[in-house]
Amino acid sequence: MFSAIRTRLTPRSTRAQLTLWYLLLPAGALAAVAVFVFVARARTLYSELDAQLELRAQQQLGEVRPALLELDVVEALSGDRRLTENAIAVRERSGAILFRSPRFPVLGGVAEATAAGAARDGNALATVEDRFGQQVRLATIVVDRTGAAPLAIQVAAPTEPVRHILNQFAVVLLLLFVLVLSGASYGASFIARRALRPVDAIVERVRAIQASSLADRLEVRTGSEELDGLVATLNAMLDRIEQSMRSARRFAADASHELQTPIAALRTAVDVCVCGSRTAADCRAVAADLAIDLDRMSTLVRDLRLLALADAGHLVDRVEPVDLTALVHECCDIVRALAEPAGIVVSVDVLSDIVVNGTTLFPRRTLLNIMQNAVRYSPDGSKVQITVSRLDDEAVLAIADEGCGIDADDLPHIFERFYRADPARARDTGGSGLGLAIADQIVRSHGGRIEVTSTVGNGSTFLVLLPFATASDCPPRRDTPATMNAV
Ligand code: ADP
To answer: What global pTM score does this model have?
Structure first.
């Protein structure tokens, strides 16, 4: 409940909250100091009043002592004219009043009982209220008399002057409190505004950054370690957004470019067929070419969809154990069909019973992509060596070729979408530049990684490292970067 009240009372603006805190702390301290000073002042004033009263009582005693020794004390006191100027009373020890000067306050029942009690008990000081509700301080002195009963003399003084001074003092303190607090509130709001000025600048700058100006960065000097950290974090975030926007734009441009070529070919082919001057045999030949282009387009569209799924994190839903040994043999048979016309020998050296986590996509698609590349980029009559081994808790599939190799400048980019180290050659081989990007996405989605070593003119070796299958499903890991080494 308290937290609900606090939440409701706390202002929503940070500036107002800071101002409030900057204000509450000095206000609390000031109030404590004011109370302390007021109490100390009150104690001093009351002690001074008591000291004066006691001194007056002693002086009065000196004056009335001869009268107190008389046989008829009352008459002796009544005859003393000096006493009319003073507020003095004389009582028996029982409390009964013998004499009261005209200035001695008229006390009500309770106050009279208190005053009588002070005389009886010998209380030096007491506070009572007179009939009119005014506070009166009483000083009592017990006077011993030889041969007669002791008496008590009481001197009274109103506390009103002290209270008057204290009231004035309280008003002064209050005014000072309000004055200091107004100054502090102005100072607090100034400090809060100053402290939050860089935040306003950051907000304004971030607002100004649009999709079209993602290269802009926050150049705000805050003078504060924390806010500088925030600026650096926001700039790093802008770097990442810019990076992904740039690759999304490049991806869209590359995809449309890739589709444009076969679509243009389709258009030309259709124009050729409908112009009427071609024979049925010509049209059949054109249709055969169209079928190849259509196949290429549908493969491209399928690959794009697969990458879109990978970007959305939906590439892998359920995995199951896959016999990697059997699968490598199966893929090698497919790749051999591609290699044989060029006289490329595909040799296999695979450990048995290697089981990894897989899906319908994986590992078949990955293996085929990398193995086909090994054959595509190898010269006629060369050799492609495929091995599967174990390394600690990972299965290692190595595909080594004796092909053209990959230049060190190209190596960091070969897993990028639509990247071709040698575009003309890659297009000849039917490659779209998506094969390794897809292989990399798939392997990463299964918790593995791909490493490459390559020497230009001597060939390349692709290593696919995969965790062995476990009883539970393999948790997809999406952000392990592919590692590259150029020799
Ligand atoms: P593509 O469909 O063009 O082959 P990939 O994504 O499979 O696209 O490969 C990207 C680029 O990496 C290729 O264009 C090629 O230049 C290079 N590459 C891939 N594998 C090999 C290899 N085994 N030998 C030489 N270059 C390769």
So the answer is: 0.58
